[in-house]
User: Fold these one by one.
Assistant:
Number 1:
Amino acid sequence: MDPFLKVTGIGKSFGAVRALHNVNLLASKGECIAILGENGAGKTTFASVLIGLYQPDNGEIKLGGTPVSVTSPARAIEHGIGMIHQHFSLVGAMTAEENILIGLPSTKRSAEARARIRQLCSDFDFNVDFDIRVTEMPVGMKQRVEILKALFRDVSILILDEPTSVLAPTEVAPFLKGVRKLVANGCLVFFISHKLDEIREIADRVMIMRHGRVEGVLPVATTPMAHMSALMMGEKPTGETVETPKAKKARNDTSPAPDALVVSDVCLTDPGGAEILQDVTLSVKAGEILGIAGIDGNGQTELSEVITGLKRQTSGAIHLNGTEISSASIASRIADGIGFVPEDRHAEGLVLSLSVEENMAFRSIGEDRFMSGGLISRRAMHEIASDVVAAFDIRPPDPKLNASALSGGNQQKIVLAREVARARNLLVVVQPTKGLDVGATEFVQNQIRAVAQSGVGVLYISTELEHVLDISDRVAVMAFGRITGVVDPENTTLQDIGLLMTAAPEEE
Amino acid sequence: MNRFTMQRRIAIALLLALSVGGVLILLDGHNPFEAYKVLFLESFLNYWGFSNTLVKASPILLAGLAVIIPMRAGVFNIGGEGQIYIGGLFGAVFALAIPDLPGLLGVPLIFIAAAGGGAFWAAIPAYLKVYRGTNEVIVTLLMNFIAIHIVSYAVAGPLLAEGAPYPYSEEVSEAYRLPILMPRSDTHVGFVFGLAMAVILYFWLRFTPSGFQLDLVGRNARAAAYAGVDQKKTVIRAMLIGGGLAGMAGAIEVIGLKYRLFHLFSDGYGYDGIVVAFLAALNPIVAPLTALFLAGLSAGAGTMQRAVGVDSSVIEVVEGLVVVLVAAALVTPRTRSKSILKPLAKNLRLRRQTQRQKKEA
């Protein structure tokens, strides 16, 4: 019997860069194949070829024994191939239903269709609010809408590009359950991920990619994780530079440091009257990493924006090194040495149409190191960026390239490098490891640790609980705009934190 | 998309526009090569023709810069035409009210008055956009008509010259007239002034923090806010500069060419400026070239009609095609990251998407 999907000798180059090299794969219905690889290994390119965003330079794709040429995502849908991207393609001003039905002929937008959407939703235990617009949805719900959109179009091959990186820890298990249900119903699911434990849980086989080649397609059940990891990383050893808990303790036990940041009773009410932040009080000592854990959308992003000045609190005070900065402008907080790695690097942290070196400079452009004789020194900009590109191993190593030409992990490195260099007193990082592979995550974590060791207070906000626990000296948990508890990561259980994360707001 | 590919695409769009124009000339029963040869020889290689081209290029170069600077900050200034009129009015009023200054003092002051007038006219839509959230495209466009009529009123009433058969003002004193660049022609130094402005603006955007930050706002407003740039101030500043540049174009027409304030003195130069700006891919240093090209087209059109017999309206068609095709050249999936061109690209893309959806439905 012919396999359901047969991929033979796929190759794809972008200019001189070989993104895919002789990729072969056989896959059958009712199978979940994880695609594992570092940033830039070719995972997304392979997926893009499958759904017709890119045309392969050579090779062939056969579906059910017949060669198909997928020339566009629309053709891919006709062939029953759908993909959920990391960056969603939803219309913000529309509801879930409108988004799912978009582009369909009006005859198919019947009440029946609407009923089917709800049926799919309950079949897969998806919690979707059908009364609100997409802009008002939390990220996890947007993703569920995207998946429903694909399911509604009867896909038989569904590609999920790092689907859990946007989900809260509590959302992951139900999501994986939903994916298993899809697979049980005969869907072929490609699951692009860096998270070995998830792959272990969900996938039947794992396809490991490195530098555009397939390093192996292995059954998950019988392959040790260490083996997968080694294939993915090549010869690069892993785990070598991770700080041991002991070292972390040692850093902790030095004489009590002064408070770098003190946030007292900060409240934030949005124009609609909703209380986004309620009496948030916390402090970060110089040299300390304070983690903020919590499910996405519980006020963490807004807290980071209030501290860095992008949003103004309704009440409460913020002190930096003992000086009140509650009403200081963003520019003056930048000048005060607050580094900020925002959550959305595409929309906020970077200017994609500018070069890497300009991106390294744009938040510090008036500083002496970028100026000479009152004018911007393009040479200084280039030299500083070249050093950083080398130190952070940003690839491709060309500071003159547009930031848009770099992969997500390398873009994140630009933002991190810039802010680490700027942070003299405080570094606020939000979701710094979102969408990064194992190696890049480790690199980012180490950079942040180094900043803390140099005496800068770090506020580490993330929904990836394990990372927060791993790096933080103390962890504050946020739920519904409040700090529901501060715990010591050494002496706490995931369950305790889970309870704090879902703590219902107290009635007052 | 890097700058090189973008410029190549724009060049292709230009060639296409000229080719379609060529087909029209052919249909009209003439040799397109002959017609274009006459047109370009006349505009660029003939002394009188080139002087004519330079005269036309001066105001549209400044008008182009008046579009480029706001656009780099993400605002679309369609109001160049009105700003030219108000600039011309302010310059003329100053020149006529204080006629006895020496030229070296008077001319700069006239330019400042004109720039102030244009900036004032641009400040209104800028204020409305930043503090009231109105759309600057609509406000700047509609204010053009107001400005044109204000000038018509002024030269038909308070400023009307004695015994004038036509609505125009008295002549400005000789000391205020711009020096002639090419002997025995009308060609004043206006283009050189515009060229200097283009160079200054290019360096300002590239090498000063304030210029760099203005560009940042246009490319990614959220990132600019994150970098501590005051977006409101930057947008207003960009519009004031744009209005000022267009206002100076008005002054050049008054004290460089006609020596009087005429009614309807600007022949759509403000709109030509939009074409100049986009042809130059919003790069100030390229604007002098695109201004010359566009000015050359219209300057040579008349001669082409006389010498080859091709109706000069063909050139108007070519100019229109240039606008459409350059806009099209900037709309590709690859331009998505080129956010300075987004307002234009987005508009066309949205239209294309709705059309496609309609077709599918």
Number 2:
Amino acid sequence: MISAFGPKATAYAGRLGDIEAIVTDPEVVTSAQAEAVRRRGRGESFSGLICIDDARVAFGYAYAEDIFKQLPDFDARRYVVDQLVLGAMSINGKRADEMWPLEPALEHLFVEFLSSCDRLLVRSYDEFARVNAWFAREPGRRLLPPVERMLATANVPVVDHVRPERPGVVIWAPNLPAHDCALHLHGLAEYRGELTCVSSGGPEPSKTTATFLVPGDPRVAAALSRAAAVICSDPSDPSDAVAFARAGFGVVAPITSGAHEFARGIVAWDGMDAKFLFTVTAVAIARPAGALA
Amino acid sequence: MIDAYGSEAERYARGLGDIELVISDITHLGDAFFGAVRRLETGVPFYSMLLLDDARVDFGYRFGEQIMGQLPRAEMRGLAIEQLVQGSLPVNGARADEVWQIDRSLEGMAIEFLALADTTLVRSYAEVARLQRWSVSAFPPRPLPQIERVLASATLPAFERAPAGGIVVWAPHRAALECAIALHGLAGFLGELTCVSAGGPLPSHSAANFFSADDAGAAGALGRASTIVCVDPGDPSEAVAFARLGFGIVAPITSGAHEFAENVIAWDALDALLLPAAVTAANARPAIVRAEPTPPPRRPQAPPRPDFIDEKTLPLVSIVTPTYNRRDDLRKMLSCLAAQTYPNIEAVIVNDGGVAVNDIVAEFPFARLIEQPANAGALRAVERGRTEARGEYIGLLPDDDWIYPDHVDRMMNAMFRSGALIAHGAGLLRYLERGVDGEWWTYGLNNRTFSQTMVPSDALVSATIGGHQMLVHRSVYDTVGGYILDSDVSDNEIHIRFTKLYFYAFVDHVTAEFRDHAGGQNRQCDFPAALRVIYDTVHPITDRPVITDQRENTIKHIASREPGKPPFPPTLSRKRPAVNPAGPAAV
């Protein structure tokens, strides 16, 4: 049985099957900790997972559009993206890379919770490395519990590929508001082809010619059938990227998602580097991904 | 076949079986680079692999004893370990984490080397993370090739297990001194402690028994051990082999051993103070190998053609070549077209008023000859060949440049599946000089400058895609026109028009070569003057000051180049040896 705490964790847990685990959003980790203590008291064995994204990429997704809105000039945006990638951009007098690390107290709570679990559940070994960094920063450092990597069931449309008349690319962000796709859309502002962004909706980023769709729209399947590449935005969950790879798309996915651990040919991308997205997309449309044995 | 460069690579390669691979130690990267280029020329896919340990852990192993040996008291050594883990330990006036960084140019060269192959082999995903850091911080950033994880087979001594709570520090390929940190961590262990190393002077302050792997003492200690502390920071294979036998295992996080076996205690290999807890935990829960990993295919497999392409009706590709008084070069160039794996090619040879080449062209049934009435320059010859080409797709190939056998096939596949009307590959710059025997000698290579794609804004400034790296659908020329004549940078200029309308598919694999030598045209041109005409007259920009600045800086930069030198320097160069260099070790 999975005990899930928080909306993201609940949605993710629904795709994990029947396992003994506690899955939690970071905001409610104390509730998860309490459940861990209850289970421990009953002598149960269980795994633990915190659904938290890489702090740097999450910061970029959340604030890029707010930054871009202040910069109508395209070249100024390109410059700012360079600064953002390096962490050097100044925001309210502070460097960006001083703003995105987690609070040590929060990391400590995470370590407390995960140390209560028999096993550490991770979505990729890349995530394992991030969790390891929390443990390494603990005063008096602690050992990591044994690790178990698990790939959730994906939820992507099944389509037949048709021969495209021009290059088609789909930005796949069904769990993100359109606003959070600003980095991707800036990176592909000079893209010449059919560009579709599948998001959970909401206000659209400025200065983009993409077509915005929400999951369930019948035009999503049509766009995918013509697409040579899918840019998967999820910074941590590789499951959709792997499903697209198995379907023979070219796939771009953030390095932090660890999608490249599950499928051959996925083009791993620094999810912050909008400028580099143009290059990796050009590579992905020429390189179909495929399943690993 | 494996080409292994360096002793570590040779040893590791023996555990990989029969596989098409170029593998190197970091110390032999240059030789491996040249070896990989020799493989590339054949067009047969192969893997690349670089054995490089995590720099931080490697630093700790190499200098651990020097640090520990200077500190007589255990608590002082503990403090030093704390500082080493944090990177703040002073080493010759600098912080340790400033000292252990790998040189950025070496990282860049490593990425260039790995990108020569279709697929890079890694020992773990932890290793991928290290390579990813290099790839995104390279200039320009470059995506890694496809990744395959491989687990080498490991050979352990024969022994019979009768666990009695002993601990073995397993480092058979490292000097005993490099085990100083692990042994410091286990200094308080009261049971049987054994260190299996490659020998040499022993670390200070350790009560361990030291053996080499083939010593009977090592086998005995393994038999009595409950826990193995595997020291290798990059190769998980021995840790996994011990896991198969049911030992408790402590292994560096950087080795990725935890990816292959459950219950492996992943340990920061510098953190000696945490090692006692790690050993205790490992002793309590023996490791269990997850499903045995599937070995990678013998050679990387090229992507298949999309299902919707009919193999029997593949479109004709025309390769246009201007030639002028270079009969030998022309024959070689036609030979490389004859070797193309794509089956439907015509070569359009335009003799630009030079010596007769009918006899050479006649040797190649797929080639036809167009004679210019008089020498009118390469661009006019190209334009004539292009307009008379019959193919649906058109490529250019100067008679002194080169494409590999898979070039056309890979470009066509990329365009078929993507719908792109332009595809290009990566281009290798080969730097040549004539030897006293008159033969060309390759003294340098560069897999960076022409191995990037074209962002439209960047195309307004300069281009790094040569004509022969690309294939272009003929409709593109119909729409935007051909090369402008009478410009030394017409191959730059055409990208400004192309990128306004088209997105390029980028096959990030070297399929074409530029050959730079003292007599080459690219060393004789007045590029600044030619660029000035393009910037000011052909494609003026008035509303983008950033682009204007970049253009001015580009002209200044090119004007500052030393005349007669290569426009782009090699990223790797070598001196001509007195005798032929020894080839790689065949494994």
